[in-house]
Design brief:
CATH architecture: 3-Layer(aba) Sandwich
Mean pLDDT: 94
Oligomer: single chain
Strand order of the largest sheet: 2-1-3-4-5
Helix content: 40-55%
Order of helices and strands: EHEHHEHEHEHHH
Distance between the termini: 22 Å
Number of domains: 1
Shape: globular
Number of strands: 5
Length: 221
């Protein structure tokens, strides 16, 4: 089993990173091979809105966004975390989401996911909702979410308050990755979103979205 872990914080040693590294350790302890990425250390250009990826199946910009998306497409699980800026994900994370082939191309189809958000004020719950919707709309199974309220730039050394939660969420994710068992309610919701929202839109686009329909054929959806 393989999992990709993505830190959407510009701080490689902040609270978000500390939680993600604990999740990484717990997954490794459970026999999962992990690959950890700090988005801020990668070369990811902003999306230009050209939509050429929908026709070709890949972005015309050959940078780390394409490499990371390919890594995600081959893994069994994804852990994605972001701090909260203005009741939203970080700009670093949003830039990757825009480039990452998520919703329309169903990047997370059959992937088992954990989401993490951190923040000093109530907006950190909004960030978690954004990440959870990203998983749901992109075809993934949400195995658990972790939201931590902490002062901005707080020391990241002691994460004992979330240790038990991390262990529980990781155990659940590993069980689902092992069995391939999805969550029934999420599956029904995804089928409705895909059948009545995403699929008709793409079909109307015809050849302009042939890269998307090709991706669906590979995924057998």
């Amino acid at each position: 089993m393989q999992a990709v872990i993505i830190n959407g914080s510009p701080r490689a040693k902040g609270i978000t990173a500390a939680i993600l590294h604990q999740i990484e350790s717990e997954l490794i302890r459970n026999g999962v091979e992990t690959a950890y990425y700090d988005l801020n250390s990668l070369q990811i250009s902003p999306c230009t809105g050209c939509c050429s990826c929908y026709k070709t199946g890949h972005c015309y910009m050959k940078d780390d966004a394409e490499i990371l998306s390919e890594q995600i497409s081959r893994c069994d699980g994804l852990v994605i975390g972001s701090p909260t800026y203005a009741s939203n994900v970080s700009g670093t994370m949003k830039q990757f989401i825009d480039r990452g082939h998520f919703v329309i191309e169903q990047l997370l189809h059959d992937k088992f996911c954990i989401t993490v958000s951190t923040g000093e004020n109530y907006g950190y719950k909004d960030t978690l909702k954004i990440l959870n919707r990203l998983v749901l709309y992109s075809g993934g199974t949400l195995c658990g979410s972790i939201a931590v309220k902490a002062p901005f730039k707080a020391p990241s050394g002691d994460m004992s308050s979330v240790n038990d939660e991390i262990i529980r969420k990781c155990s659940k994710a590993v069980r689902r990755m092992t069995t391939g068992r999805r969550r029934p309610l999420q599956s029904v919701t995804q089928k409705i979103i895909f059948r009545f929202g995403i699929k008709p839109f793409v079909i109307r686009k015809g050849p302009a979205y042939q890269g998307v329909t090709g991706r669906w054929a590979e995924l057998k959806i």
